[in-house]
Amino acid sequence: MTFEADTERVYPVPDEPATMIEATLCFPLRDVGGTEEVLLIEKRRGLGEGWYNGPGGKLEGEETPRECAVRETREEVGLEIDPADLEKAGELEFRLDGDRHTFCHVFRTRQFAGEPHPSEEAYPEWFAVDDVPYDRMWEDDRLWLPAVLEGETVVGEFRFVGGKPLDEAEFAGHDLERDVDFDAIGRSR
Ligand SMILES: CNc1ncnc2c1ncn2[C@@H]1O[C@H](COP(=O)(O)OP(=O)(O)OP(=O)(O)O)[C@@H](O)[C@H]1O
């Protein structure tokens, strides 16, 4: 539920459902003999099944986005990350038929321990950053992920239409801002 303040009272905005999902994506990066690589997962179940994405998922309980990204990366591919080593790289809002559907915090890191291994939910695979399989990913990824992999920051809104589920909806438009200083606006958590 979101609220809008006027001078006298605070009231709910009727067209914003209370069900918006808050989620994370995490992109581990490494250098192999001068080639920059990113760890993606092939999602084996749930939303976006069969597509590549970063490790990630929905916030649970009282955890912060950073804690969620660490937990999801551990659960999905077995890498251990210190939350302080995650760099906030983006905030993405996915809208479905005009309603806010998912708000996603994007992180990247070069510091992690362990070797990625498959889980029930995900099959991990390293890709050169200039050979990312955008044709097997969410349609919006090609619009913001290249910037994230180049070390930039992004804030974007991506609009889908055509009813649920989100991964069967049609991509209809977007707005994207680059070079956002998340520390300066107090949004690096
Ligand atoms: C619309 N365009 C999109 N583009 C890129 N990424 C998108 C996305 N829409 C959702 N995502 C991400 O997909 C993951 C699903 O979350 P995830 O918790 O794995 O969902 P799933 O339905 O499988 O639920 P479980 O928690 O496994 O039960 C989560 O990181 C979320 O940010």
From TrEMBL:
Organism (species): Natronococcus amylolyticus DSM 10524
Catalytic activity from the UniProt record: 8-oxo-dGTP + H2O = 8-oxo-dGMP + diphosphate + H(+); 2-oxo-ATP + H2O = 2-oxo-AMP + diphosphate + H(+); 2-oxo-dATP + H2O = 2-oxo-dAMP + diphosphate + H(+); N(6)-methyl-ATP + H2O = N(6)-methyl-AMP + diphosphate + H(+)
Keyword Metal-binding among UniProt keywords: yes
Co-factor(s): Mg(2+)
Domain called Nudix hydrolase: residue spans: 19-150
Assembly notes: Monomer.
Enzyme Commission number(s) of this protein: 3.6.1.56
Keyword Iron-sulfur: no
Domain of life: Archaea
GO biological process: DNA protection
InterPro entries xrefs: 8ODP, NUDIX_hydrolase-like_dom_sf, NUDIX_hydrolase_CS, NUDIX_hydrolase_dom
One Pfam family this sequence matches: NUDIX
Name by which UniProt lists this protein: Oxidized purine nucleoside triphosphate hydrolase
GO cellular component assignments: cytoplasm
MF (Gene Ontology): 8-oxo-7,8-dihydroguanosine triphosphate pyrophosphatase activity; dATP diphosphatase activity; metal ion binding
Protein family (similarity comment): Belongs to the Nudix hydrolase family.
Function summary: Oxidized purine nucleoside triphosphate hydrolase which is a prominent sanitizer of the oxidized nucleotide pool. Catalyzes the hydrolysis of 2-oxo-dATP (2-hydroxy-dATP) into 2-oxo-dAMP. Also has a significant hydrolase activity toward 2-oxo-ATP, 8-oxo-dGTP and 8-oxo-dATP. Through the hydrolysis of oxidized purine nucleoside triphosphates, prevents their incorporation into DNA and the subsequent transversions A:T to C:G and G:C to T:A. Also catalyzes the hydrolysis of methylated purine nucleoside triphosphate preventing their integration into DNA.
Keyword annotations from UniProtKB, A to Z: Hydrolase, Magnesium, Metal-binding
PANTHER family noted in UniProt: 7,8-DIHYDRO-8-OXOGUANINE TRIPHOSPHATASE (PTHR43758), OXIDIZED PURINE NUCLEOSIDE TRIPHOSPHATE HYDROLASE (PTHR43758:SF2)
Gene3D superfamilies: Nucleoside Triphosphate Pyrophosphohydrolase (3.90.79.10)
